[in-house]
Amino acid sequence: MRILKCAIILPLVFMAGCWDKLELEEQAFAVVIGLDKGPGNTVEVTFQIANPQVGSSDIGSAQNEPFSDTIRFTAADILSAKDLANSVVTRTINFAHLKTMVIHEELARHEAFPHIAGAAIRDPEMRREVALIVSREKAFDFIMKNRPKLETRPHKYYELMQQRWQETGFVPFSTLNQYLQQQVIESMFLAIYATADAIQSRVSRHEDDYLAGQVPKRAGDPVQMMGAAVFQNGRMIGTLTGEQMRWTQMLRHKTNIDAFITSFSDPLDERAMISVRLFRNGGTKIRMNLRKERPDIHVTIPLRVQVLSFTSLQQYATDVRKQMLLERHLKEEIEKEVLEVIRLSQRKFKGDPFEWELIARKHFRTMPAYQAYDWANHFRRANVDVKVDLRIENFGKQRTPYNETTRGGG
Fold it and tell me: I need a surface site. Which of 3, 205, 316, 380 has the fewest CB within 10 A?
């Protein structure tokens, strides 16, 4: 009799793990979510749902199907909208492959946004590493207009864009988890700023001195991702340009940005520009004296420089004096631009986007002592000086720049 019972029970035990099993074609994978402010206290939630059969080995049975479908619902929060979507969509909505969350700037500035974002993580399928993007226009319009030619599958587009963000430094690497962490400690948070509508095309001498919508682009996908949306206490309060975002990341002790290309004016010809590649030569050094009412903060940024081009055709590659002049000029220009970002943070945003609070904590024995110190208030009044420890590494392969004197030389 015991043997008979075991023969009946054991198969049931092994089969119990498959009771909620869903086939691939029974699921709808939301890879992008858009959030817009709805009427009253509601939120308009947009789901961009990827077709799992398109782009897979099963594409033969889905040749005429689109790569994704976009739907929008008005509900109290994201979870309510997901439940509502399941009453319309033939497949079960799944957040397991969610890559990106797009938030309209109007909603990001609203007092209700921290509660909306906090409620989202109550869904066990919601990943905390979801990338956060703030769009100047409605999130629904941003998602609908984003139709990249080279990447038809939306999840692949955002996956590859995350790699570009880390390479260029034009935008921060922002996730839902970082947003929630900064909200808890009442610190400043930076999110990617983007738009699919060009507000104005202006040509700047510096290729990174733009905000999303200002990049002088003439064709291709209309989406521009440039700069950062600045959050304080969970709500958006302003923006940083791509140039300001780069220096912000350089001011952090640890960052994913190790090198980027930028340009400066030529010290020997104001009309010309010099393009360089900047390398972090180790971590940024931050020393603090918090014993004074107005704390002193000393920042040292070690950089290596590769000069890529100089249109003035000056003999920088062969003239040591001109090299010293160029080195001093680059050092002064970087220090000036970095100090402008620090002053902007202290006076306009009244917060610390450089994550210096992590270093300030080490000056206190207990967390309550640090909280009583009120770092945000002291940071606004701090005396900050910046030193750039810069060394020109090389001038590339351009040893003798072309000029009129070398024309026709043997």
Answer: 3
Q: Point out which residues pair with 231 in neighbouring strands.
A: 189, 236
Query: How far apart are the C-alpha atoms of 370 and 364, rounded to whole Å?
Result: 6
Contact criterion met (CB below 8 Å) for 194 and 228: no
Residue 16 CA: distances (Å) to CA of 7, 11, 13, 59, 164: 15, 9, 5, 32, 44
Helices 113-120 and 78-85, axial angle in degrees (round to 10): 60
What gap in Å lies between CA 95 and CA 82, rounded to an integer? 9
The CA distance from 191 to 134, in Å, is 7
Chain center to CA of 111: 22
Vertex 211, ends 389 and 279: CA angle to 5°? 25
Q: Which two tokens stand for residue 218?
A: 């003439």
| pLDDT value of position 354 | 92
Q: How many residues are listed for the chain in this entry? A: 410
- Say if residues 171 and 226 touch (Cβ distance below 8 Å): yes
Q: How many CB atoms lie within 10 A of CB 13?
A: 8
Helix (H) or strand (E) holding 182: helix 176-184
For the whole model, what pTM was predicted?
A: 0.83
Angle, helix 320-344 to helix 242-250, in steps of 10 degrees: 100
Coil/strand/helix, residue 176:
helix
HSE toward the beta carbon, residue 352, CA cutoff 13 A: 24
Query: What would the pLDDT profile of 221-268 be if each residue is shown by its tens digit?
Result: 788 888 999 999 889 999 999 899 999 999 988 887 888 888 888 888
- Closest by alpha carbon to 389, among 285, 234, 254, 255? 285
